[in-house]
Write a structure and sequence with these properties.
16% strand
Length: 391
């Protein structure tokens, strides 16, 4: 016969037992100050008289004084150690964070005027019978080139700045400073005589496709001077704060790059195996006048990674009065078979191969009574090495 169930009362911690509602003595009532419940108001929780059990709850550790102060200041943040909180919240942003270092931007219509203009254009299109008939018969041709030019001249630079923010280009190259790429910079690689590989601001281009120097196009006046730099902020093998310089052309008259001064020859991408995608960023600077890049001059050909070490922020900081960033474009690339040939035959060094060090999986403390757990729950708590009994 199963053990009877009793209504639990506050007598249990006093007498170390469970007492039914009909067995209370006057002493018991004085000690526990129990109120008699009617049948209607009697509690519904029933407890079996099996003795006190250890609660299946992980009790928190004592809270330190620093953690109490932290929880009062940041009650919405997860509980961590006071040292990590102090280091995390004491980190100050760099002085260049949020500074606009680019060319002045032309301000367009506000949101209200833009909605009015959009409503006016939509009404005119609906009133055009020929346009409505072409759309209904699916013979309407949309001028994509005109739309692209209008986008580039109006809102393109703002959206490109947001894309660069998403890819952390401002943070890694200019320590948080940004600019609006008002000068549209089109880049593509010649794949063969009939095909090209364009750079669409973040698309993937393999090292094989980028083995030859790209074609860079932009619109400018003939009497202006420009500087073009291609850098990789993700590929340095020894210094995480440095970059590898892949291309540097200065004092470009107008948009003819072939007439500029080649400070560093083009070098194809070589992302090592196991390091994932690398960003390759084109930055176009507008010069105030002719500049002397003799200190930045690299030997030709330059097959030394130490010579190609570069820091964009320091380069611009030293010449911020003579240079203004105006154009931006970038692509991503990862390892392929051509990278191995680049390391062995061009750089004359063994190819580095990286492997990701996965963190150990988290295993929660074992529960004494794992309620509603599968039988495999105990497998992760078994010893890894077999236990041999000695007889």
């Amino acid at each position: 016969m199963a053990a009877p169930l009793w209504i639990g009362s506050r007598c249990a911690p006093v007498f170390n037992t469970f007492v039914s509602s009909s067995r209370h003595s006057p002493a018991c009532l004085d000690l526990c100050n129990r109120r008699f419940f009617s049948k209607k108001n009697r509690p519904k929780a029933l407890i079996a008289p099996v003795g006190p059990l250890k609660a299946n709850v992980q009790y928190p550790e004592p809270v330190q004084e620093g953690e109490i102060k932290y929880q009062e200041e940041y009650p919405w943040h997860e509980k961590t150690s006071p040292i990590s909180q102090e280091l995390y919240y004491s980190e100050e942003p760099p002085p260049s964070q949020g500074v606009d270092i680019g060319l002045p931007v032309q301000r367009f219509l506000g949101s209200k005027k833009f909605r009015q203009l959009k409503r006016k254009v939509n009404n005119e299109n609906r009133a055009n019978a020929e346009l409505e008939r072409a759309a209904r018969l699916r013979t309407l041709k949309v001028p994509l080139e005109e739309i692209k030019k209008e986008w580039e001249a109006s809102f393109g630079h703002e959206q490109l700045k947001d894309v660069a923010t998403h890819y952390n280009i401002w943070k890694d190259l200019f320590e948080g400073a940004h600019f609006h790429p008002v000068v549209v910079t089109n880049v593509y690689f010649d794949s063969d005589d009939d095909h090209v590989v364009p750079v669409y601001r973040g698309n993937v281009v393999t090292p094989t496709e980028a083995s030859r120097p790209p074609v860079v196009e932009y619109e400018s006046d003939e009497d202006t001077l420009w500087t073009l730099i291609l850098t990789n902020p993700d590929g340095h093998l020894r210094d995480n704060q440095a970059e590898y310089l892949h291309w540097f052309v200065g004092n470009i008259p107008g948009s003819d790059i072939s007439k500029g001064d080649t400070v560093c020859e083009y070098f194809p991408p070589f992302p090592p195996q196991g390091t994932g995608y690398h960003r390759f960023v084109f930055i176009l600077f507008k010069q105030e006048g002719p500049l002397d890049y003799s200190t930045e001059k690299r030997p030709s050909p330059c097959h030394s990674l130490r010579s190609r070490t570069f820091r964009m922020f320091e380069f611009y900081r030293d010449r911020q009065d003579q240079l203004t960033p105006a154009g931006l474009n970038f692509f991503q690339s990862q390892w392929d078979q051509s990278v191995r040939e680049t390391f062995r035959n061009v750089l004359k060094m063994p190819e580095p191969i990286f492997e990701y060090d996965f963190p150990k999986p988290f295993i929660a403390p074992q529960l004494m009574i794992p309620h509603r757990k599968a039988i495999q729950y105990l497998d992760k708590y078994l010893p890894k090495e077999p236990i041999l009994k000695k007889f």
